[in-house]
Amino acid sequence: MNPLTLAEAMKCLRSKPATNGIAQLNLISHCGLHQFRIFLEAYFSLYQSPVTMLEEIYGGLFKKLHEPPLSPCLAHLIILDSDTLLAGRSLRSHPNDNSDKAFQDAIVQLKSTLRSFAAQTQDPVFILPLRVDAAYFEHSVPSVVSVPDRRFTHCLEMLSELQLENPQIQCLKVTPSEIDQKRFLETGEPLHSHAASTAALAAVRGILTQIRGQSPDQELKKLLITDLDNTFWGGILGEVGWEAITCDETALGKGHWLYQHFLNQLASEGVILAIASKNNAETVFECFSKRQIPCPLKNFAMTEIHWNPKSTSVTRILETLNLLPSSVVIIDDSPAELDEITQAIPDVTTLCFPSSLSEMPDFLKSLRGHFLRARPATGVESRLKSYQSAARIAVTRETNSDGYENYLKSLEMELTIERIRPEQKERVFELLNKTNQFNLTGQRYHLSEFEMILRNAHVYAISLKDRLTDFGIIGAAIVNQNTLEQFVLSCRVFSRHIEDASIKFFRERGVTEIPFRPTPKNQLVHDFLNLPKVRPYFGILTVG
User: Fold this and answer.
1) To pair with 251 at 20 to 30 A between CA atoms, which of 109, 206, 229, 276?
2) How far apart (Å, rounded) are the C-alpha atoms in residues 413 and 464?
């Protein structure tokens, strides 16, 4: 992601949902940071982790740090500007030998205050030091222009020591941000727009990387596949029976109980759940029906329960749900099983289920990092039903082709292709930037680029519903004269021949050019465009 302009950030905030994010960010600053705050909110939103700012403090930083921290929150972000870090006001007022002593005293006080603040909260504390401009001192103390560089280095050394003492504290490293002294004196806000954007982007990346355990520029996972025995529940079902497996708040079952409730949370956020277990399917289903299981079977999009290799189960789940190996995390208590899977499917992510309750907090924190969501997902129930429907379609198709066509007809599908309406812009923009597999070109768009496309080309929203589910908007297209410049389709509706019906629609309206641009993930589009003939769509097509 490249730094936004202020106009782009404002547009991003205007287009985001009206509901506030669940996560809260406590921003503490000594100076005015209005633009910086705007950029922070915009970047968190673009990284799918919108936050609610608890408050922004102008002045009184040390007083605020001595108060009990607001908690719980996503993180505390403390901005240390030039005056705070370098005792700048003391230097300007007393440009003599005592200035170094004032600086050393300020550093000792700052380190003690930050250490005390972190000790009072369980939430992560991030510190962002803003690099002072040497010109800050030029008019009053020309002889000490080199002082800021030396003192800033001392400040970073102090923060590094503090970070080593307390892993809860993280010092964010940013490209040096020049303080705009004239702006600071006139408005109390030290950063010009570009510096505020760059610093905010670095801060958001640093915070999300620490919390997720991976860069926010890496895609979040979509699917979790879990083992059952000694993972989802305690015990070997085939040996102890459904009565004796453990998944409650007792000592033996507590870890599995926590894990299942965590899976429920992920499901509520839109993460897809599936089961891959070497077991007798009838025994498993009996257990779900007779035991009170915290995470019920209805929360799972698909189950693979048999005695074939686990890699076979994972491959089948990925193919059925039309997801890439890089989008899945697999949980199993057996390192051997996980090794067998990664040998066959190298791009998957695997985590070994902990053997003791004491290891659960770190395990769940690591797992949360792959699926972090800062707001409840919308359309979770319909999304789950669509994946469950995909699993049923796959079974029917494998049984016999005639049955598959009859099943598609029985769905009573209604496909709508229409010029985009204002209320559809957010979802279409999201699809264009998030879809990987069925993506004609792999192109990503800034909001300003999307707004220009809306003015200069025809943008279409593609929606689908059937007798079981209303999927909402599942595709988008950009048509410029006779060229289909972009076409994306959600993986939830693959295998229904929606893509065939859509291409036929656009060709009938003058599209003759469909320029395909290969990416590492869109082989599916290549295969579709090279099909020998258009496949039949068994449903109603409505033109909006």
Assistant:
1) 276
2) 7
